[in-house]
Amino acid sequence: MAALPLCTTTSRRDAALRQTSALGDSRPSHGRHVVGSRSFVNAFATAGACRAIRRSSKHTARGTRAVSRALSVPQAVRLVSVKEGQLVIDDASLLRLVTALQASSCTHIAVISIAGALRQGKSFFLDLFARYLESSDSWLADSLQDHQRFHWSSGMERVTDGVWVCPHVFQVPSSEKTRVGILLMDTQGTYEPGATRWQNDSLLGLAGLLSSTLLFNISKQLQEDTVEDLQAAMDMLQMTCRQHGRPPPRPDSKNLTFLVRDWAHADPQELLFEDDLATSQGLPMSDQEQSVLASFVHSTTAGQGLGQFFESLHCRTLPHPGHIDRPGWTGLSSDISSGFINKCGRLFDTLADAASAQACAAIGVQDFEQTLKEFVILLNSTQDFTEGKSRSAVLSDLSMLNAMDRARSSYRANMYRAGALMKGKAIPQILLGEVAGTRALVAQDLAAAHRDSVAVAGDELRRLALFSDECAVAQSASELEEELEKELPRLQEENRQWNQQRLNGLAELTLAAVTVSGLVPPAAPGIAAVMMPAYALQLWRFKIAGGDFMANSIELHKAMLRTERTWAKDVRTSAFRKLYGCFVDSSDEMLLEVFVFTELRSFTSSRLRKELEELLGLQPGGLQSYGSSQLMGIVLEASEEVQDEGRHSADEG
Ligand SMILES: Nc1nc2c(ncn2[C@@H]2O[C@H](COP(=O)(O)OP(=O)(O)OP(=O)(O)O)[C@@H](O)[C@H]2O)c(=O)[nH]1
Ligand SMILES: [Mg+2]
């Protein structure tokens, strides 16, 4: 049974080694002394290993897809370390990295990072990934102990400290099109004894912020509490962003992949990949992987929460790699199980292709340095509010912050609904009726909507602040109320301005109609026929808004006077006088304007009286003894006010 496979194996292995030596002296071929040795023969004289090699040859075919940009990839450098409870960037490493980024032909960089508990094979996986991206034809030809791209080792002690990157931009064929290169990033293991929660969260946060794909490494089985921890770290990040007035991280195309190591339940046949499962979309998730994702991520609150930070969530399982975790392992790739190698190769292809297509999540080459520095400053500032706090206290702060945010949004949503907020001022929005503000003139309505919305926001806050005690909730509710009260004057002013714009528009329309009618008298009846319904509509709209009718009319009148002033004087006088000739004799231009005004408002003296009483805050019947000319006098005062305004502005001019 062994004869034929052994022969095939040896020849393929030789071919692999020939390829290796063709790489030159930069990477000494430690595999050479193994050829023909007993260990080599023993390791490969199994049908399984032969299949592995057969599969590797298939990889060779698909591996040529990887574009090798360098014969030897430099070793990873430590980009960020944790010193005295602060993230510190290593300037020399950053310079090396930035030089490598700029030397590449890529415009964007997709970071693939790995994070998770310590001593679980994170660096080993990334080391293999780097080797594969460097040259998928001969990635296993060397002794894996030598020339480690990412340093890994057996034993109990932590190996990786801080954040490490390979100062090299990897490219795959799709990078040629998208110009998105790949950067591999390794992180210190989380939850190591003695590490503060801040340290764990901030390292995870940094990886989450920078990565297009975050590989979250887990041993044997995904657990709900692991997902919760990750979500808490991402929440912390979001809270920090809010505290600093920055937009929270966007999930744009970002991917989170739970990488489950030493998965013992895989179907051995599946790992042979006899049928080419990979599609143009990459290796699909197996049923088992989908089921893990569904049970621990999609159906848990924490898992669903992660959807805020990552657009796609995946799960990938890797079988046990064999006895490589033993202290005496010499790094022979032949000791690694074929299932592990096969799955890794497929996964590397899939991850690399997906990352190079994730242009939205990638960071511009020119922005990388600045982005990294900003994130580090941001994360260092989180210490203030996590220092000395238990996880539950931080969770309570988080839930309160979230509740406050949601309460604010509910306030805004209610105000929009009540028509007391403007959504936008762009003309298309106004035309489409998307601008709320139909009630802008109604000060009482605005105040009432505000009162209701503040109450609803308070209820929302109390409903969502689940993890805080009553005292903290009461304090936050009063802070929220105070904050929203401060909003009111600004909203009132905004509404006033919006309303003014509408009135100005109406005034311009009126004056245009009057002018045209004056210049072309035969057109006057037609124009009047069109204008009157338009006015009626406007007044009706003010009216159904429950508005202050008189105040509207006076405001409209003022708006007209202001508009008039901006028009050429000769046009105005000639047009007006022609049209309202009967008033010309009085030479009282104001009277003309009052005429326009009274015509517009088209309501009776008794109505005018009532409105004025309300406007001036008088008792009903307070203006009973005033005749219509006296009432007009009051209206005229308003006009004079505007005239004065005009004079002042002219003087100032
Ligand atoms: N059981 C098992 N061991 C592995 C796997 N991958 C690598 N190892 C071994 O696990 C040991 C630790 O590997 P590392 O890559 O240094 O682990 P790490 O998670 O980066 O460790 P820290 O950097 O210390 O957090 C090494 O002896 C590897 O050979 C795996 O999939 N399963
Ligand atoms: Mg490591």
From TrEMBL:
Q: Does the keyword Nucleotide-binding apply?
A: yes
Give the species this sequence originates from. Symbiodinium microadriaticum
Coiled-coil boundaries: 474-501
Q: Can you say what this protein is called?
A: Atlastin-1
Similarity remark: Belongs to the TRAFAC class dynamin-like GTPase superfamily. GB1/RHD3 GTPase family.
Which InterPro entries does this chain map to? G_GB1_RHD3_dom, Guanylate-bd_N, P-loop_NTPase
Pfam families given in the database record: GBP
Name the Gene Ontology molecular function terms of this record: GTP binding; GTPase activity
Q: Which key words tag this protein in UniProt?
A: Coiled coil, GTP-binding, Nucleotide-binding
Q: Does the keyword Transit peptide apply?
A: no
Span-the-membrane segments of this chain are none
Which gene does this sequence derive from? Atl1
Q: Where in the numbering of this chain does the GB1/RHD3-type G domain appear?
A: 106-272
Gene3D superfamilies referenced in this protein's UniProt entry, alphabetically: P-loop containing nucleotide triphosphate hydrolases
